[in-house]
Design brief:
31% of the residues lie in helices and 16% in strands. It contains eight helices and nine strands. The strands form three sheets. A four-stranded mixed sheet has the order 1-2-9-6. A three-stranded antiparallel sheet has the order 3-4-5. Strands 7-8 form a two-stranded antiparallel sheet. Helix 3 links the parallel strand 1 and strand 2. The radius of gyration is 21 Å and the shape is globular.
Length: 277
């Protein structure tokens, strides 16, 4: 009796990551190329892919409520129990929110040669476009492309931003800065501090505009648009599109956060939590 053992070539992840990165076309480039199978660099272990197992409604806080004490208490309770909440009547027009989403879509729908001009891993660039900021360190890459710009405290010159989205990027960032100032005052009060406490610490001075794109995936059960993480910021103001997909971990259970028309999702970030540990 004879046998011929088969040897499977080892998975050279570092080489595959570099090859993907050097295309400078991101996940959208894979989709445009017509791939039918998710490359190994994106495949998650099954146990790392969360499933929503319960229904819990994320608090929706009306910032237009005339009872300021009620708003402050709602923010205190939501921050303590969830670390997340949604806000409505926040002062940002629906038209600006819609245009912001459209601006992000327009950037990601540009041809590859246009986007390659911005593709970099140098976070100090005015506009950074790439796929997975932690591409070389994460256990599995996310099925996501991103562009971002630091918009405050020093805003880039308008001509340095992509023309397809520069006007709305500037307008939306200005609007969110105003909202951030209000939220930090309310959170200061919720902490039993003077309203300007967090503002005086410059928590509301910096802002980064981040535009994610999650291209259609041929095997969505194998990968994720964003793996489990926390935000290393003071606050994240998240504008979802109508597709949704956001989940948060609450008491060891993953819960869905479906889009609420006109609402923004607020995430208490690591820096703000660390400031009061």
């Amino acid at each position: 009796m004879t046998s011929t053992p088969l040897t499977i070539a080892s998975y050279d992840r570092a080489t595959e990551l570099k090859a993907f990165d050097q295309t400078k076309t991101g996940v959208q480039g894979l989709v445009d190329a017509g791939i039918r199978h998710v490359p190994r660099i994106f495949i998650n272990q099954p146990e790392t892919i969360p499933k929503a197992t319960t229904y819990v409604e994320l608090p929706v806080i009306d910032l237009g409520c005339p009872d300021r004490a009620s708003i402050v208490e709602s923010i205190r309770a939501a921050s303590e129990n969830f670390g997340f909440f949604q806000v409505v009547n926040h002062g940002i027009p629906l038209s600006v929110m819609h245009e912001a989403l459209q601006g992000v879509r327009k950037f990601h729908l540009q041809d590859m040669e246009f986007k390659k001009r911005f593709y970099t891993r140098d976070a100090s660039n005015t506009v950074v476009y790439n796929s997975n900021i932690d591409l070389y360190s994460s256990p599995a890459a996310n099925w996501r492309d991103t562009f971002f710009s630091v918009m405050a405290p020093s805003r880039p010159k308008a001509e340095e931003l992509p023309e397809v989205c520069r006007d709305i990027q500037i307008e939306y960032s200005n609007q969110v800065l105003k909202l951030g100032g209000l939220l930090f005052r309310l959170i200061s009060e919720a902490l039993g501090l003077e309203p300007n406490h967090l503002g005086d610490l410059d928590c509301d001075k910096g802002l980064t505009f981040v535009g994610h794109c999650y291209p259609a995936c041929p095997q969505p059960d194998l990968t994720m648009g964003a793996t489990k993480h926390t935000d290393d910021s003071f606050l994240t103001v998240l504008l979802q599109d109508e597709i949704g997909g956001l989940q948060i971990l609450h008491r060891n259970q993953w819960i869905d956060v479906p889009p609420t028309p006109g609402a923004l999702v607020i995430n208490i970030g690591d820096l703000l939590q660390a400031s009061f540990v």
